[in-house]
Design brief:
single chain, Structural Genomics Hypothetical 15.5 Kd Protein In mrcA-pckA Intergenic Region, Chain A, Alpha-Beta Plaits, nine-stranded mixed β-sheet
Length: about 240
């Protein structure tokens, strides 16, 4: 197996990041400094910076759920309609971040605790994109105020991208994740959210193939790009 593929399948880092580390002389195979194109055979000892590479558990899980409204993003078994019971996956998983009960759309579930902090740290500026329907026509002043920052929870929200999609619908890209942020921002400006759907987390997007209430496993290409962006947050789209 090609060294890049071998390491990416451990979940430790992406193929692209592996190439960088090979060039830096940080990877060895059986005590020999690895070069681009090296193959790994069964029984080979592969080290990164002189240490064994943590192996991904064979049943490492990355799930994309198109969450319906009414499902609560908690693992607490006593909460009716909790997301873990809803997905009913035969291994222990948990949600990365959350969507409030009334909101819909994309959420990632996994059993890899290592990626949670990387994804949720706001200083990494990981993007999350939403489509929001409000109760009255969207004005230029509303778009400008939302994008420049709104005072909620004793802070002013970070600048963000806001686009009017139709009379009562807008898209917003956040790199911040305050509690009920979008709903609070809209309320502060005199609007009420009627529908809120997350359509993207970093490079992971919803499309028409995944119907509301359905889930799928993250594809290998999506996972590699996600890991690459988490390795180098300044180069990736980023967390709200």
């Amino acid at each position: 197996m090609l060294i890049n593929k071998y390491i990416s399948e451990t979940g430790y880092c992406s193929r692209r990041e592996t190439t960088r580390r090979i060039a830096a002389g940080r990877i060895t195979i059986n005590g020999r400094v690895c070069v681009k194109g090296d193959m790994v055979e069964p029984g080979d000892v592969v080290l990164m910076d002189g240490k064994k590479i943590p192996q991904r558990h064979p049943d490492m899980v990355y799930i994309v759920l198109n969450k319906p409204a009414g499902i609560t993003c908690t693992a607490a078994a006593h909460v009716e309609g909790n997301i873990i019971q809803y997905v009913n996956y035969p291994a222990r998983i948990f949600a990365v971040g959350r969507l409030d009960k009334a909101s819909e759309g994309l959420i990632l579930l996994t059993n890899n605790g290592d990626i949670v902090n990387k994804m949720m740290r706001s200083e990494h500026h990981h993007e999350k994109e939403y489509v929001v329907t409000v109760d009255k026509p969207i004005t230029d002043a509303f778009v400008q105020s939302m994008s420049q920052g709104v005072g909620i929870l004793n802070v002013v929200t970070k600048p963000c991208e806001v686009y009017r999609q139709s009379e009562n619908v807008f898209r917003i890209v956040l790199t911040q994740g305050l509690n009920l942020q979008i709903r609070r921002m809209c309320k502060a400006l005199g609007y009420r959210v009627l529908k809120l759907e997350r359509i993207r987390i970093m490079n992971i997007t919803l499309d028409e193939r995944l119907k509301r209430g359905e889930w799928r496993h993250l594809e290998q290409q999506e996972l590699e790009l996600l890991m690459s962006q988490l390795d180098h947050p300044e180069t990736g789209t980023g967390d709200a």
